Amino acid sequence: MAGFNDLIAQEEIAVGEVIAYVDTYVGEVSRENAAKLALGLEQVQKDQLSAWQRLYEDSALQEEMAAVYQRHWSLDDLKQAEDETTRQIVAKTVASGYKVETAEGTFFPVIDYTFYQKYYEVMTADVRAYFTLMAVESEATPVKDAALMISWEEILRRAEAQEKFIEEYNTSTQVEPVRQLMERYITFALFGCNNTPLFSYDTKEMDPEAKEAFAAYIAKGSTGEFSALIKDYFEVLEKNDFRLTAEVEAYRKQ
């Protein structure tokens, strides 16, 4: 591990170099060290993400990507862009464990957590479970343009899965990042988003699909702090005829 730590400590190390190192040695070390290699790679990706994002700020690149994307509204088409510069940037992005996303008419890279699936068999159970949770996020981001991109049912399901991770792997190094992720989902469940609010801005009535999802979730009889929170919240909502009132607002802000 000393060689790996020296590698990632270099100021101008390329993500591709770290990937090559991990690919070479991840199967030759213990599960614990394999997990450390994968998490070290993730940290390098996080550290260098802003530099990759700046690369995508080039106006000519954005225009070319928009032209390609708008033909079939598929981000995969960017890999076959006619413009060589665009095609090479996308190829290098993918090879470095990122993927291209779009929001508000802009294209940008994010970490592609499905990239870590090739290491699943050799890492510890907790880190494998962590990367599995994160892959769900990168495959279907919950929010774009201040609007929910997944269903209310999926919000509740993901939050429950995150809580189960925290309970099952309570000594894991990844508890805190999962806890932070879960806090986002609690906010989604209690408030929604600016462009997908839990309550109508006009009528103050609860979104009917959310109401149905909450009721179905409670009927499952799940246990845990999150399910208890949703159950208590639903009781307050029911008491207030599923409208945003001062009592409901006070409950969700406590």
Tell me what the structure shows.
- The protein folds into two domains: 1-124, no CATH class; 140-254, no CATH class.
- It is mostly helical.
- The protein contains eleven helices and six strands.
Largest sheet: 2 strands, antiparallel
Give me the Rg, rounded. Answer: 21 Å
> How many β-strands, per DSSP?
6
Overall shape: flat
Spans of at least 5 consecutive residues with low confidence: none
Strand content: 5-15%
Spell out the key features of this protein.
mainly alpha
Question: How is this structure best summarized?
Answer:
This protein is mainly α. It contains 11 helices and 6 strands.
How is the topology of this model organized?
Layout: H1 2-8, H2 15-25, H3 31-55, H4 59-72, H5 84-95, E1 98-103, E2 106-111, H6 125-139, E3 143-144, E4 147-148, H7 152-168, H8 175-191, E5 192-193, E6 196-197, H9 208-219, H10 225-239, H11 246-252
Antiparallel strand pairs: 1-2, 3-4, 5-6
